[in-house]
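User: Quick sanity check before I run a bigger batch. Here is a single chain. Can you write out its predicted 3D structure?
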Amino acid sequence: MSLLIVLLRRSRGRLPLALLLGAAGSLAGLAVIALVNRLIAGTADPDAATFGPLALLLAAVFGCGFASQALLTALGHAVVCELRTATVKRLLDTDVERLEAVGTPALYATLTKDIAAVGQAFNRLPFVFCNGVLVLGGFAYLAWLSAPLFLVSAAAIGLAVGAAYGWVSAMRRLMIAVRAIDDRLFAGYRGAVEGRNELALNTARKRVFHQHDLTAVAELARDTETRADRYWVLSLSWTALVILGVIVGIFAVGDALDQPRSLTAGFVLVLMFLRMPLSDLVGTLPILLAGGVALTKVEALGLAPHRASFDTPTAMADVPATLPTVGPLLELSGVVYDHPAQDGEPGFHLGPVDLTLRAGEILFIVGGNGGGKSTLLTLLSGLRRPSAGTIRLAGLEVTEERRGWLREQISAVFSTPYLFDRLVGPDGRLDDALAQAFLHRLRLDRKVTLTGDRLSDIRLSQGQRKRLALLAAAVEERPILLLDEWAADQDPLFRAFFYDELLPELARGGRSGGRTIVAVSHDDRYFHRADRVLRCDAGVLTPWAGPAAVSPPVLEAAQ
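Assistant: Done. Predicted structure follows.
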């Protein structure tokens, strides 16, 4: 039913027309059966007066059926397209924490299998509707032919449907279990693709992975799907048995009730005609159930509500159009963040953090692995909500309504960046001269060409991919730039070039004539290039007290 409701909301008038045509075609088919029944009973003559209407009715069956199913099928594909784009838009609007809680395999399973299952269910709805009209109309005609025979038939079929209800419920439960197993299968697929190098180097690991992480899950999916299909096959066989049993029983009941043999024969003819649409309805049941389970799974992800617009948060009336170029820019006061515990592993606590980032400043953050540096960057960028404390940008508290505004002021290159093959400048307009010049400065102009806003190739080494990620961040021309261990994958010569020349250039760039840069770094020989160096270990931020003093003297970490 939920599938039909979604379809109704998106039909915009096409659905009523398609359903009307489908109903007309189905009724025309029943009229054909009624006329044939009259010919069998001898109440109609086999002449032009009978065959003329029969020909018109047959044409109506074809024309109305084709038009209805064509409209409904096209509408079903349109709804699936909207579901795909809307689901991705909801995913884009969902917070990082929620996406991490859902997990990548579950997201991929939804975007591929779930939406495909919903699409198959939508595309079967036209046939379900037409068959449903045929069955309902057929039973109405049977009731008109003979009320006693109809009551006996309806009682027998009703009891049979009641007996089969438990099978359908069991099949739906098994389909829900299969869908849960799919997430584990996609996790295995991801390991096979993304871990291909590690698996290729270790035959024992490859065997263990294939046996335990893939084969065992695939066999569980196979067994569960087989059990679900058995209930479906049982339902199909039961439907065929019930219809044939009713047909046989009708002759006995007709004789017992002294019904005319011609009436009983006509009654049986209609039942034989209804056998096919009834079997089709039962055969479509697994597809509809799978679509319903998939649609429920999509909603269970807890993605953000769908918004068609891509509103620019900087258009808010209470925020400044540009950020200050001097003085305090981004302030964290008592900020705390708690990573939730997962899979039996303890959580992680960051803070409280008191930090004032000044406009035009270059700040380096150092510390050991797992100390909270990357988490701090996601807090600074507005990708995560602090558990406690406040963040202020340009003196304004970053409330939930202003988090989008904060994110629009920041460009970032994270430790494992994802590369898009299109560059996007301020407000979606790319400065081609800036992009070409920076591509040359990154020493990639001989490997990658830029045509319009599109890069010719992004299949590069890790260090070169990070250079392209830096290019994408630079052309955004935003006032704040975050870099998470950007230089770690660069060769020594380019690393020196980055700290000595490129970093100062980036600090002078941006639309307002300067950038504020926060960089996670372990290159202590270049710490003198920063205005400040802070240390983040075990979730605590303190001034760095390393052997190489920073000149000018380190500013206070807490304001």
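The CA atoms of residues 366 and 522 lie 6 Å apart.

User: Great, the batch can go ahead then.
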